[in-house]
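no rush on this but wanted to send it before i forget. theres a chain ive been looking at and ive put its sequence and its fold in token form underneath. please have a look and point out which stretches look like helix strand or loop to you. thanks a lot i owe you, the record is right below:
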Amino acid sequence: MGFFDFLKKKDVNNGYEIEDDSFIAELHHLSKGPWHQYDVIIGARGYGWEGMLGWANYMASADLEHISKVSYAMLAGATEEDITEEYLKYNDFTKVPSLQEERGVLSVGGMSKTVHGPMQIVWINQTNFLRFFTIVDDENLMRRYAETVIRRTFNTKDAMKLARPIQPKPVEGKQESGANSNQEESIEALKAQLNEAKKNQGDWQTPYTKLLKAVYNRPVLFFALSKGQYDAEKATSEPLISTKDFGGVPALYVFTDVEIASGWMQHYGFITEDMKYGLIGAIEKQPCNFQSTFTLARHLGAQMIMLDEGGSYVAIRLDQFMEVNGIDPKQIEIAMSKEESANMLDNNVAPEAKFARIAAIPLTKK
């Protein structure tokens, strides 16, 4: 029995062969001629530069052979620098001179021993995002492959096996109905439905509401960061509230895709003066992270959300976004240490409502 025949066999355990939750939060498949692009959102904390180099070394030893492309970029969407020949002199990503400084993107391509075809993997620094380019037109197979890449289980009993899908957490106090309630439509599909409905003067509120929920349910969102609030010593800043659009109405600038965020960053020059950091930060949807950010933005005067400017952008009223997602505008959570909290209580001082500081995306090592 061949490899592809094995994949078509009926799976055990309701289709899931690993008794564990999947590390894949989302998988999106795009076709570009004979090539297929698979974008994977990892349902876990993001990775950094050293992790990328170690991961690339693992893939070169476990699955990718005949490495034919190695490149890096300062940030997603920027021009890539091909360093294939340099890598082949060392055969160790941690020792390649051009990779000693931290970069934004690392791309490695070769022949996959597992899928028996070309495979290119793209890592983006300080995110939980992976991209695969391949000629394989099979989402089931690529889901198995991505799970194996993330778990690093090539050449083990768990290689190319499925795990239980991550179940989305319901919004407190709300319950979705319908058989397909857990099958979230893609952000881009909902944008297209919204634009089509507005163009034809149809029911635009349904896709608009779905879009607002889908954005809030993302495992991570990217925010434009303030130049004025940037702390060069700590390389952190706060979410930007700008009046450049909507006739001067204050707005947050939010991105669902790291490449759209990076393109926006380059277009508007949102890079630190020393060219080491891009003024875009990632916020993961952990307890209260999203809720606190949007609630504080409203408290600080924001009225709109500019979603995915630089791509197929959508203007969203912040109050509507909060209402649809059950965010209480009166409940504000402010991160502080126990010492800060105790000091305020001792001195009868009210806490200042301000954003938590966010790490900027590094472009080079300090």
